[in-house]
Design brief:
The chain is mainly beta. Helix content is 7%, strand content 46%. It has a single domain, classed as Methylamine Dehydrogenase, Chain H, CATH 2.130.10. The N terminus is likely disordered.
Length: 448
């Protein structure tokens, strides 16, 4: 009888190990309080004694990466620059993070980059804005213009183009189209342009700043331009080409007229689909009664799209808000239907500025955080924030990097070796940031 009892106990122990042990391992990975963090490979700053920042990063065909932003400095890491005006800064790195070249472009006024892409010919295109009309900048129509710069693969300036009217027009997003041309987007000062910027047969002269979209040839010549929005402020901050050669743009809007039909309150995520010739196909607003701003969009593996930004709302489309502002993530269909949404954040301000798909069909999101709870740590004011979610939006890990001052991330991508490179700016010289050379330095973080 004792032997039988012992045998039963042994069998039950084996069952527990095989079945219950397996269940507990699964449960170990899922609770939100147990998050595997991406390990920081390095954080480094580049800059001089003035203001320097990186706003965009893209992986390159040789396995490395390229960054673009701006520099006001002319010393330390930017000692090749001869003036203290703001210029576009472009820096190319190898796969092992060695600086291969860096260059600045601009005139005597304020010139800054917002986005960069590697082009089909192996070179690069950079979009931002310019207030100059001298040196590298051949023309300026007003307060500031879209400025598009085409570079060779070693950073030689091949050509540049300005687009704008008498007001403050600035470029925000850029992509090379399937046929090798460019689509550039940004904000058009509609009032100052007096209704210019649309096809002449479609002029709608309303106030505010609108989504302005320009389709260009491979040489930068204008094919068409159109603007979309309402009477208030509409700002595009993300764009992607769709399978039917149309485009989806995301940004923010506090308008509720003209092209915007269903504003939820204050600023919303505003998402529009346009055809290959710029015809507005559909528009959707997502948000709640407070400020909600979309910042970026990425394709997903199943033909849908991930949109990220931040929300201060806790009603309408937002089920949960953890604090002052949360990272807000939407999955939408190709028709603009909301498939799911989720917020990630603590009790303070947590925001997303970029999203890109990773090789495992998940997404890496970059931004900043002021929270020190709900899985977040904070070393000062704003810390640089990197999140990794899977294809269904489940948080896999989150990491903050920073010091006692303000540290931001604006963009992040995964390289071929599955490491993540994130870029932004830092004013810290302590904590995770060992060196600061000026007011703010360009920040580069590697996550393994």
């Amino acid at each position: 009888m004792l032997k039988r009892g012992f045998l039963c106990a042994l069998i039950w122990s084996i069952f527990c190990l095989l079945f219950l042990g397996h269940c507990s391992e699964k449960e170990r990975l899922t609770p939100p309080e147990i998050i595997i963090k991406g390990e920081v490979g390095f954080s480094q700053t580049r800059g001089g004694s003035k203001n320097d920042a990186f706003y965009s990063v893209k992986k390159t065909a040789d396995g490395g990466y390229i960054t673009a932003g701006y520099s006001q400095s002319n010393d330390f890491d930017i000692n090749f620059k001869t003036n203290e005006s703001f210029d576009i800064l472009v820096a190319k790195f190898s796969f092992n993070n060695t600086l291969e070249w860096q260059k600045t472009f601009g005139g005597s006024e304020d010139d800054r980059a917002a986005d960069i892409v590697q082009t089909l010919d192996g070179g690069f295109a950079v979009l931002g804005f310019s207030k100059s009309s001298d040196r590298d900048v051949s023309a300026n129509a007003g307060s500031q213009d879209f400025w598009l710069v085409k570079l060779s693969n070693n950073g030689t300036l091949l050509w540049e183009k300005s687009f704008g009217f008498s007001g403050a027009d600035y470029g925000t997003t850029l992509l090379e189209t399937e046929e090798g041309g460019f689509l550039i987007t940004g904000v058009l000062d509609v009032s100052a342009s007096n209704g210019q910027g649309n096809a002449k047969s479609m002029v709608v002269n309303h106030a505010g700043g609108d989504f302005w979209v320009l389709k260009l040839t491979a040489g930068g010549d204008l094919e068409w331009s159109k603007y979309y929005g309402g009477s208030f402020t509409d700002t595009p901050l993300g764009v992607i080409q769709t399978a039917d050669n149309g485009f989806i743009l995301v940004g923010s809007s506090d308008s509720n007229d003209v092209d915007i039909k269903n504003n939820k309150g204050s600023y919303d995520f505003w998402v529009i689909k346009i055809s290959s010739d710029g015809t507005l196909v559909w528009e959707k607003s997502f948000g709640g009664s407070e400020i909600d701003e979309a910042r970026a969009i990425s394709s997903s593996h199943d033909g849908n799209f991930i949109v990220v930004g931040d929300t201060r709302s806790s009603d309408s489309d937002i089920a949960v808000n953890n604090g002052a502002a949360d990272v807000w993530i939407l999955k939408i269909s190709s028709e603009g239907s909301l498939l799911w949404e989720q917020t990630i954040g603590g009790t303070s301000f947590d925001v997303a500025r970029s999203v890109s798909m990773t090789q495992d069909q998940g997404f890496v999101i970059a931004g900043s955080s002021r929270s020190s709870d709900n899985g977040f740590t904070n070393k000062g004011q704003n810390d640089a924030l990197i999140l990794k979610i899977d294809a269904e939006g489940v948080l896999e890990w989150q990491q903050t990097v920073g010091g006692s001052e303000i540290d931001f991330l604006y963009d992040a991508i995964e390289l071929e070796d599955q490491t993540i490179i994130a870029v932004g700016e830092s004013s810290s010289s302590d904590g995770d940031i060992s060196l600061n050379k000026g007011f703010s330095d360009g920040l580069i973080i590697k996550i393994k």
